[in-house]
Every structure is written in structure tokens, then in C-alpha cells.
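Read as amino acids, C-alpha cells; as here:

___
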Amino acid sequence: AGDCANAELASALLGRSYHEVLREAAKLQAGSLACPAIGCGVRGYPLEEAALVGLRAILEDRGVPYVEVRIWDWVTFQGWKRECDKLGLAACEEGAVRDALWEGEPLAAWQAKRVSREEQLCTLM
């Protein structure tokens, strides 16, 4: 999958990556973990397969009570959401996710957008 000629090996390596991240977080006795959507970047790994491997690893490894998968763009979120739906898992609300995505924005622009949105919320209270 992606740029790896052996799809079975690629899937195993991806799963092992998730398990290692989760194992290290559990060793640190982390109560929560924000983990990137591993395998969903520029190297061309199939999105739905990457999401399924990640979700299965998270479901199998219960050493960390709360795990969030951090996603860069809307297309990736939609792929993960489809896999969550297939497994009967709840995903975050689409509006909340859309507001949090970077979509390639420079960090300063993303932070300014967040601050602006927070200022709008404060004036409504």
C-alpha cells in the first residue's frame, strides 16, 4: 500500500506504529493521548485502510483510557468517519472538526482564526 510494494507488510508496520505509540503512552500512565492519523500523509497509503488499521489498534489496546486521532484535512476526516461508522463508533461532530482542521494554513493564520472565533463566542455570552 502507498509507496510500499508489499501491502501486507505495510499494514503490519502501520499497526505496529500505532501499538508502539499506545504502549509508550501507557507506560507513561497517560490518561489521554492525541495521536496523529498515522499513514494518512503524503506517501499515498490508502485512506480507509489506514483508518481501519488505526482504529483497530486503538480498540485492541486499552492501556490509555482516552485517545483522540488528530487529522489534518477534511478528506482524511471523512475517511476516518466512514470507518468509524462501519465499526459502530461515534466520531466528533463535523462542525467541531471542520473548525479545528489546519488544512495547510500557516500556524499564525490558524491561531488568528481560533482567537477570532473565541472573541465572537465571548461577546454572545
Notes: The first strand starts at residue 32 and ends at 36. Residues 7-27 form the longest helix (21 residues).
